[in-house]
Amino acid sequence: MVASGVLIVGSLLAVVVGDAMVTVGQVRLSATQRQVAAAVAVQKALQVDVAQKAAPPVVVTAAKGQGLVVPNQVVYLPQVPLNVPLPVPKTIPASSSTTGQAGAGSTAGGNTATVPAHR
User: Among 15, 27, 71, 101, which is disulfide-ready with 113 (CB 3.0 to 4.6 Å)?
Assistant: First the structure.
């Protein structure tokens, strides 16, 4: 009789301990879910901020503010296959008379932008 009483009390105690562990786990889960929800809200706000800063009118305004100008002409380059090796170009050393020439992408007629062709 005593053994069955101890068994019943032990079983009830195990159920109470198990229930307490489940409750603690639920509290931790709720706290973690709140943290995840807050992080998702922050991430969405940051995505909106990035999208607003990357909008074309904002980028153009910032570029003009830094002194960049719109090119007069845009030249699209043809698509080149990447699996075909190109021959090594023949190069010659630069002479001292070539210093002071205009840099790449500029022409005598004004600004020219070189853009890869769309795929």
Answer: 71
Q: CB–CB of 71/113 below 8 Å?
A: yes
Q: What does the alpha-carbon distance between residue 103 and residue 107 come to, in Å, rounded to a whole number?
A: 9
CA distance 68 to 93: 32
Residue with tokens 């922050």: 42
Please give the Cα distance from 96 to 68 (Å, whole number).
29
| Mean pLDDT to the nearest integer, 59-81 | 89
Give the pLDDT confidence of 12-35 residue by residue, as tens digits: 999 999 999 999 999 999 999 999
Residue 18 one-letter amino acid: G
Domain boundaries, the chain: 2-58
